[in-house]
Design brief:
Blueprint lengths: L1 E2 L7 H18 L38 H9 L5 H15 L7 H16 L3 E14 L2 E4 L2 E4 L1 E2 L6 E9 L5 H5 L7 E5 L5 H10 L4 E5 L19 E4 L4 H6 L4 E6 L1 E14 L6 E6 L9 H17 L5 E6 L7 H9 L7 E5 L9 E4 L1 H13 L7 E3 L5 E2 L2 H5 L5 E5 L18 H19 L1
Parallel strand pairs: 6-7, 7-8, 8-9, 12-13, 12-14, 14-18, 15-16
Antiparallel strand pairs: 1-17, 2-11, 3-4, 3-10, 5-9, 6-10, 11-13, 15-18
Helix pairs in contact: 1-9, 3-8, 3-12, 8-12, 10-12
Bound molecules: zinc ion (ZN).
The site of zinc ion has 6 residues, from loops.
Length: 445
């Protein structure tokens, strides 16, 4: 699950540009060979999913004594939800936190690739660049630090001095304040940030703090000014304590900007052009092990892919989702994804909140029918994400592919250290394995 930050660095705009380019490419690709999965006329060429699929009981043990039973189940292509639970354990506990661009993310990609190869897929790992806004700025008084956001145009670095207050920075307010060697606190408003910073710099200040006129944080920029001192913004609810700290020694650290890195998608093909997609992101935020978000989604598609290897099915595990849907955007930019019939994404499948299918409404209705027809007792319904949240299906929607995300509902622990393997509910994971399997089979018919 991607939660959009306070300031979102233009990624949506970039998606828009990529979308147009890919849509044009897709339009030009209309003369391709007939789709393997492209409809009833060609179903004769589809290796139909096994009609005898059974779901192994959840309490069938995986390791140890009954390993042969699991092997037999695997050979017979019987859904085995315990294998999915094991994938969640490996990704979230053995590998742990998997932030974009890290060796842990890469280790997860390798594990996923290995799992899909073992299931008979042709697997490639496709690298792509991504960028990430970061800001580790802070204001520290007497050993206690509060977060700050660096203003664009201010200098990076750390400065220390006595904290003085200069109002909003009007001439009369500046006149009576000795700023040399000091950190100047301004209220936001009236005088532009650049003028506050310029006045403080000219008077010999070592750093500037601008406090918001509302409780929360904000980002600012200094326009054309390139200040030689750090200039940071802090949340309005810090104002009382900062005013209380006037005359104390304060340290300002400005450390923000754009970080670039390399992530990777794991792309698995079962032969032929990609006409149907299963997807899930496998990266996590740095703050936690990403069990529900989204080791569970990966586990679901791995297990469903294992028992449904038919020509035309492609499985993509996306990297760098949490930093701005980079993996799915890279995928649709690099491939003619727009010709696919559908895309099923899974993002969070382990903690039952209000489970929803988000995205294309016609596809959602089809899925719900297939899930019901398969006799799966599922609380799934058509729904939407919380505000400012998104996932990888939107990159496929943007190039014209009917696409949805399966989501197990609100989980307050995502993006925290508490999003751990122990919290994942096996019964919920099983329900999603069964529902996505039923949806895929139904849609492929
Ligand atoms: Zn997330």
């Amino acid at each position: 699950m991607l939660t959009l930050p306070v300031h979102y660095p233009g990624s949506l705009r970039r998606l828009g540009i990529a979308t147009v380019a890919v849509a044009l490419l897709a339009a030009c690709g209309g003369a391709e060979p007939p789709a393997v999965l492209a409809g009833s006329a060609t179903t004769a060429t589809v290796a139909a999913p096994q009609p005898t699929i059974k779901v192994a009981p959840l309490d069938a043990a995986v390791p140890g004594a009954s390993a042969t039973a699991v092997e037999a189940a695997a050979a017979a292509l019987v859904l085995e939800p315990r294998l999915a639970l094991e994938h969640v354990r490996v990704l979230s506990q053995e590998i742990g936190s998997r932030p974009a661009g890290t060796t842990q993310e890469r280790a997860a990609a390798d594990y996923i690739a290995e799992t899909l190869r073992a299931a008979g897929y042709d697997v490639t790992i496709e690298e792509f660049p991504f960028e990430e806004d970061f800001d580790r700025s802070s204001v520290t008084v007497a050993g206690v630090s509060a977060p700050a956001l660096a203003m664009r145009g201010g200098a990076d670095g750390t400065a220390n001095g006595m904290l003085v207050f200069a109002g909003v920075g009007e001439t009369a307010e500046l006149a009576g304040v000795e700023m040399r060697g000091r950190v100047v606190l301004f209220d936001r408003g009236v005088v532009p940030f650049s003028e506050k910073a310029r006045a403080a710099e000219a008077a010999g200040a070592v750093a500037v703090i601008v406090v918001n006129h509302e409780a929360g944080p904000f980002r600012g920029n200094l326009g054309d000014l390139r200040a030689s001192i750090p200039v940071v913004a802090v949340a309005g609810d810090l104002r009382p304590s900062l005013v209380n700290d006037l005359g104390q020694s304060v340290t300002v650290s400005a450390d923000g900007g754009m970080k670039s890195g390399v992530s990777q998608n794991v792309v698995a093909k079962a032969g032929g052009e990609c006409r149907a997609y299963l997807g899930a992101h496998y990266d996590s935020v740095p703050e936690g092990p990403g069990a529900n978000d989204n080791a569970t989604g990966v586990a679901v598609i791995l297990e469903v892919a294992r028992v449904n290897r038919v020509p035309g099915l492609c499985v993509v595990a996306f990297g760098a989702e949490e930093t701005g849907l980079w993996g799915s955007r890279a995928y649709v930019s690099d491939h003619l994804a727009g010709t696919a019939r559908f895309m099923l994404n899974v993002d969070m499948a382990g903690i039952l909140g209000g489970p929803v299918i988000v995205g294309d409404r016609v596809l959602t209705d089809d899925i719900l029918k297939h899930v019901e027809a398969a006799g799966i007792a599922s609380p799934l319904r058509a729904g939407s994400f919380p505000p400012f949240s998104s996932s990888d299906h939107v990159s496929f929607s943007a190039v014209g592919v009917p696409a949805v995300t399966f989501n197990s509902g609100d989980d307050p622990a995502i993006h925290t250290p508490e999003d751990a393997f122990e919290r994942v509910e096996p019964a919920t994971l099983t329900m999603f394995v069964q529902a996505v399997d039923a949806a895929l089979r139904g849609l492929l018919q």
